[in-house]
Amino acid sequence: MKKNKIIEKGTSTFKEFKQFISKGNVIDLAVGVIIGQAFGKIVTSLVNDILMPLIGIVSGGLDFSGLSYKIKDVPIMYGTFIQNIVDFLIVSACIFIFVKLISKLNKKEEKKEEKKKDEQVVLLEEIRDLLKKKSNVKSK
Fold it and tell me: Is there a contact between 94 and 41 (Cβ–Cβ < 8 Å)?
C-alpha cells in the first residue's frame, strides 16, 4: 500500500472511532460500569465484613468454605461453591433493595413534576379565559 492510502485509512478509522466513543450510550455505559464496580465493592464488603459474620454467629460458626470431599486425593471444594451461592443471594437481595429505594425516589420526583405541570396548566387555562373575556369585552 502507498503511504497516502495508509494515512487516509488511518484517518478514516480514527474519525469512526471518535464518533463511536463520543456517542452518549458509550459514555453512559462506561459510567455505569465504573459505578457498578464501586457499588460491587461496597456490597462485597457488606457481605464479607458484616452479614457473613452475623450468619456465622446464628449458624453456630459454620463456615461453608472449608467443606470439601476427596476423590482419589483430589479435593472437591463444594463448600466454596455453597459459600458463593450464599454470597450471590445476599448480593442480589442488596441490589434488589437498592433498586427499589431508587425507584421510590424517582416516583416521588415524577409526582412532584407532574403536580407542577398540572398547576402550570391550570394557570395557563385561567390566563386563556381572562384573555378571551377581555377580547369579548373589546369587540362589543
Answer: no
Mean pLDDT by 10 residues, the chain (140 residues): 74 79 75 85 82 78 78 88 82 82 82 74 84 75
Give the Å distances, CA to CA, from 19 to 4, 25, 32, 40, 129. Answer: 23, 12, 20, 31, 50
* Whole-number Å distance between alpha carbons of 52 and 88: 12
pTM above 0.70, yes or no: no
Sequence letter at residue 25:
N
User: Is residue 63 within 8 Å of residue 52, measured between CB atoms?
Assistant: no
Q: How far is CA 92 from the centre of its chain?
A: 13
Q: Other C-beta atoms within 10 Å of 49: how many?
A: 9
